[in-house]
Amino acid sequence: MARAGVPSMHSLLRQRSLRWLGHIRRTYDSRIPKDILNGELAHERPTWRPHLRFKDLVKRDLVDMKTDIDSWKQPAADRAKKWRASVHDHILASETRRHELAA
Q1: Rounded to whole angstroms, how far apart are CA atoms 32 and 38?
Q2: SS3 for 13?
Q3: What is the pTM for the complete model shown?
Q4: Over its length of 103 residues, how does the chain's per-residue pLDDT go in tens digits?
């Protein structure tokens, strides 16, 4: 994959989920995806390793992007200039780190 210049499947999935997070941020408050992202479960999660929710995966990606979990909404509101560029830069940096570790 490195010779073809194509990012890994893991990086593509992370990029898509972060872009989707930005899309959810820009939608109206009454939309179902936004309610689901901001909502909480009605029952307790199991004590063993619980299944990861979309919110948990995105938080992990935001930490890896070195983005503050509480302040991601401001850049995500500006799709063209801030959010999309920062997601793209993050994916390129993670791919570079992956290639360096593999070498």
Answers
A1: 10
A2: helix
A3: 0.71
A4: 456 667 788 888 888 888 888 888 888 888 888 877 777 666 776 777 777 778 888 888 888 877 777 778 888 887 777 888 888 888 888 888 877 877 6
E strand or H helix at 36? helix 32-38
Phi, psi of 8 (to 5 degrees): -70, 165
58, 85, 94 from 12: Cα distances, Å: 14, 15, 11
- Tell me which long-range contacts 79-86 makes (C-beta under 8 A, separation of at least 24): 79/22, 79/26, 83/19, 83/22, 84/19, 84/22
For residue 22 the two structure tokens come to 């930005």
Alpha-carbon gap, residue 15 to 28, rounded angstroms = 22
How far, in Å, CA of 65 to CA of 91, rounded? 9
Contact at 8 Å (CB) between 76 and 26? Answer: yes
